Amino acid sequence: MFRFCLVLTAFFSIHTNLAAHTSLTMNQKRVLHRSIKLIDGNVLVTGGVSMLSPFPWPHSSAEIFDVRTQKFIQLPSMNTYHAEHALVTLDDGNILVVSGNQQKTLEIFDVKSRSFHALPPPQIPRAGHTAHVVGNRLFMMGGYQVKLFNNEANPQELIPVKHCEVYDLTSHTSQLIEYPSLFSRLTMHRSLLLPNGSILIIGGIGNRNNIIEWNTQTLEFSLRGTLKIPREDEAVLFLDNTHILISGGTNHEYKTENTLEIFDLNTNESTLLDMKLHEPREDHHMIKLHDGRIILIGGEIHGEPDKILSSVEIVDLNTHKVSFFPELLKGGLSDHEATLLDDGNILVTGGESAQGSIQSRALIIDINLLGY
């Protein structure tokens, strides 16, 4: 059981082991892409952009990481481009590719034929959103619409979306749901699907303080709790069925956090831990390992410009120990993807380096070589 209420001292250990990963190459440079583990253990990698300046250059390519051969296999292209989109696994193992385009778009990846098929689109386009499937309905929340300009000084405008959308996967019809008074906009947030079928929306611009429950039956929103520290671009995960770990993010004063807190679904209270990360980080990945420890990978520190991080940290909530690997992601990595493989290792794909280059590099982090 997690002893987060009893934490008095956090122990830090610093490691310089750079041999704890294997370097691979994807078929395409990617940032702002998405990845998801398939039912066969392989990993689907979709979309993103291959260039950020002077104009973002999104693409429709996709590939699969084959865990047996340790190689990336190019797939037939998606029907359109997707960047800052969402991937959702259906009960049959197929994958929904949700929005992430200037236009309204939705498609499905068939795991057996390894091909993409367009579905009738939702009502409004969005990117930077989150999405979950409950029963036969797709719930999309937050994000923004992207308006591009032929102007290097101001290449795009991000316009916050003002509605959530509920899409029926059987009838291919949808319903727009206006935002509640609890938030006027919702970007850079995170969300989790609760065991009861409701959706928990955590933090984000327009909602930095709040933990909001969206009842997927009544479609009503309610305030479930408040964060100890306001956050956007944080990372969240379930520790068990009733406890949620929240890490990092940037607060209301635009300072990136190195703090951790745990939200208890039984009491609707959040506890700020005495344990802290070695580096503040936002836009990072956080994954629960098979042994219960938590790994945090890359990200950035908000600033002018942002500082892209080269580090990985492992948090052990039982021993109160934070292990720090300062240069494991040599060159730095943000807006990447990270996926837990069946063997317990981590596949890290793409991202932007500290020098601003978009990566075709992929890494497999060997958890056994990281040690304690």
Strand-helix topology:
Blueprint: E1 11-14, E2 21-25, E3 34-37, E4 43-46, E5 62-66, E6 71-74, E7 86-89, E8 95-98, E9 106-110, E10 115-118, E11 130-134, E12 137-141, E13 144-148, E14 156-160, E15 163-168, E16 174-178, E17 190-193, E18 199-202, E19 210-214, E20 221-226, E21 235-238, E22 243-247, E23 259-264, E24 269-276, E25 285-288, E26 294-297, E27 300-301, E28 307-308, E29 312-316, E30 321-325, E31 337-340, E32 346-349, E33 361-365, H1 367-370
Parallel strand pairs: 1-30
Antiparallel strand pairs: 2-33, 3-4, 4-5, 5-6, 7-8, 8-9, 9-10, 11-12, 12-15, 13-14, 15-16, 17-18, 18-19, 19-20, 21-22, 22-23, 23-24, 25-26, 26-29, 27-28, 29-30, 31-32, 32-33
CATH superfamily: Kelch-type beta propeller
| CATH architecture assignment | 6 Propeller
Number of domains: 1
Percentage of residues in helical conformation: under 10%
Mind summarizing the main beta sheet? 5 strands, mixed
Mean pLDDT: 92
SS-derived structural category: mainly beta
CATH class: Mainly Beta
Secondary structure tally, helices: 1
CA-atom Rg in angstroms: 20 Å
Cross-sheet strand order for the largest sheet: 1-30-29-26-25
- Give the overall shape: globular
The quaternary structure here is: single chain
Q: Which strand-content bin applies to the residues?
A: 35-45%
CATH topology: Neuraminidase
Counted beta strands: 33
